[in-house]
Amino acid sequence: MCADKTILVTGGAGFLGSYLCESLLKAGNDVLCLDNFHTGSRKNIAHLLDDRRFELLRHDVTVPLVAEVDEIYNLACPASPIHYQLDPVQTVRTNVQGALNLLDLAVRGNAKIFQASTSEVYGDPHVHPQVEGYFGNVNPVGPRACYDEGKRCAETLFFDYHRQYGLDIRVVRIFNTYGPRMRADDGRVVSNFIVQALRGEPITIYGDGSQTRSFCYVDDLIRGFISLMDAPSTVPNPCNIGNPTEFTMRELATLVLELTGSKSQLVERPLPQDDPTQRRPDISRAKKYLDWEPAVELREGLAKTIAYFEADLTSGEDAPKA
Ligand code: NAD
Ligand code: UDP
């Protein structure tokens, strides 16, 4: 990785952002971490605060910003359905107004800019596995639309700024990612199942649990982010980054029970509206152009994540209900 750059990471105090800040610092860059602490936490970045190359800025991306930076990674946005649906208008604003503000900042400073997009742009996909050329199947008026359409509009803006202003853009479509530092009350399936299993509470399967997801361990994902940002500008955008091994939610629950040794029962709860029935990335593009593929299997990544939650829940510091 090229070092000695000044890099802005929005959403830097979040789950993924904190790992990204860490990796960029380790490589010898100055990192400006911006966050409004909506879903992020100081705890995630506490170990970075003493690093003289790290700076923390409490700011909301919906408000324009002035900063001199070489690169921008835009990760600011709540990622869990329960959090992004709490204030859907703010979710759209964060995605759209936030993207506009950061793109304007990139144009002014001629900075390279990276967008954390999502597999949700494919909606409930009819093409499986999902290739980047698939336009998706999104309900524009449903409860997930604030996130899905917000991210789709952000992609549109990135591509228009590229065409109109010649901006160097990188757009990654992230598939479900998990690991230590997820919040116990995050609401996403991996943290829910682990926290429920460790507490001996029922494991909540939404619907019949036959829907699928493909889970990527956080270290693999961050390696993919940086490879994409550092790749030549001829690398095709957007680029899927995710682990292509697909599991049903019932299979995930069974694996979590096995790895935790928990006796929790599986209980069915209503399937949320517009919940995608299947999801799995086609990663041919990342393999070909970035020489990237995931290295951590679900069993191994879950074991590390379970160890994190065991320590986190017993520390009592941050033990909200899942
Ligand atoms: P997260 O909720 O832990 O992190 C998001 C961060 O953005 C938080 O620190 C939050 O406080 C901050 N934020 C939210 N709104 C903001 C605003 N208006 N201004 C400034 N900061 C704001 O989620 P995450 O899992 O770390 O996701 C990071 C990014 O990756 C998000 O953009 C998300 O959409 C995307 N993504 C994540 C996944 C995944 O599986 N983790 C999948 C697809 C896409
Ligand atoms: N899910 C579940 N139980 C939970 C939380 C989620 O069965 O306690 C399901 C959810 O309905 C979805 C899948 O797990 O089918 C992944 O959900 P998550 O919120 O983690 O991510 P996303 O739906 O955004 O992919």
Automatic annotation (TrEMBL):
Known cofactor(s): NAD(+)
Domain NAD-dependent epimerase/dehydratase stretches: 7-242
UniProt cross-references to Pfam families, sorted A to Z: Epimerase (PF01370)
Keyword line: Cytoplasm, Decarboxylase, Lyase, NAD
Gene3D superfamilies in UniProt: NAD(P)-binding Rossmann-like Domain
GO biological process: D-xylose metabolic process; UDP-D-xylose biosynthetic process
Subcellular location: Cytoplasm
One MF annotation (Gene Ontology) recorded for this entry: UDP-glucuronate decarboxylase activity
This protein's record includes keyword Metal-binding: no
Annotated Gene Ontology cellular component terms: cytoplasm
Name of the protein described by the UniProt record: UDP-glucuronate decarboxylase
Native source organism of the sequence: Jannaschia faecimaris
